[in-house]
Amino acid sequence: MPLINLLLLAYNEVGTINEEICKWERTLHLLPADMEYKIIVVEDGSSDGTSQLLASYHEQGRLVHLHEDKRAGYKSALIRGLKACGGDYIFFSDTGMKNDFNDFWALYYRRDMADLIVGRKILRKDSRFRRFLTFSLNLYLRKLFSSSVFGDVDSGFRLFNRKSRNTFLEQRLNFRGFVGCEMVLVIIRAGMKYLEVPIQYQGRKGESRGLPNRKIPKYIV
C-alpha cells in the first residue's frame, strides 16, 4: 500500500504545535483508504516544552518524534527528516500555522505530475520586506537560468516523491539558508519535473524561526 510521509520541523513551537498536529491529523485522515500516512517531526533542540509535548504524542503512537539535544539548524534537521522518510511520497510543511491545511490537496492530487511540487504563496499576509526579497530572489533565478517556472522556489510547503528524496540525499544539500531553493535547483539540474501550485499564506506571527528577516539578504548573496 502506498505511503505518504508528512515531515515537519519544529523549534520552540509549543504555542502552536498541538493545534497544528491535530489539524494535520484531521486532514490526513481524509486520504483514500488505499493510502497510508505517517507523521514525522524533527524537533530541533527546543527549550520551551515542545520536546516534551512531542514525546507524549510519540508515546501515543500518533507520530514519530526525532529529537536533537542541541539546535542543529534548519538544513540539518531537514536532512535528518529526509533520512527517516521511507514512503512513496513526502509532504513537507513549515510549522507555525503559516499555511492553509486544505491546500494540501492542491499538491496531493497533482502528486504524479512532477517529481517536486511546491506551493507558490499568493494572497500573502507577511511583511512587505519579506515579500520583496522573495520576489527579488525568484526574479534573479529566472534570469540566471533563463526559465519562467520559478515563482516561489523556497516555499516551505512542498510534495515530492521517493526519487526526489533519494536525489536530495545523494547530492548532500549544502546551503544553510534557502535549502528549499537548492532542492528545486537540484531537481532541475537532474532533468526531473518541477511544478508550482498556488496556495494561500498567512505567515507566522512574530519572527521566523528558520530564516529571520535580518539574515535573508546575507543568505541571498
pLDDT < 50 runs, ≥5 residues = none
Order of strands in the sheet with most strands: 3-2-1-4-6-5-7
Distance between the termini: 44 Å
Give the helix tally. 8
Using DSSP, what is the number of strands? 7
Q: Based on CA inertia axes, which overall geometry fits?
A: globular
N-to-C SSE series? EHEHEHEHEHEHHEH
Mean model confidence by pLDDT: 90
Cα-atom radius of gyration = 16 Å
Would you mind describing this structure in some detail?
The protein is α/β, with parallel strands linked by helices and 221 residues long. The chain has helices spanning 17-28, 50-59, 74-84, 104-108, 128-144, 162-171, 179-189, 216-220, and strands spanning 3-10, 36-44, 64-68, 89-93, 116-122, 157-161, 194-200. The protein has a 7-stranded mixed beta sheet, sandwiched between helices. The longest helix has 17 residues, at 128-144. The chain is globular. The N and C termini lie far apart (44 Å). The model has no long low-confidence stretch (mean pLDDT 90).
Concise structural overview:
By secondary structure, this protein is of the alpha/beta class.
Name a few traits of the molecule.
221 residues; alpha/beta; seven-stranded mixed β-sheet
Helices and strands in order:
Elements: E1 3-10, H1 17-28, E2 36-44, H2 50-59, E3 64-68, H3 74-84, E4 89-93, H4 104-108, E5 116-122, H5 128-144, E6 157-161, H6 162-171, H7 179-189, E7 194-200, H8 216-220
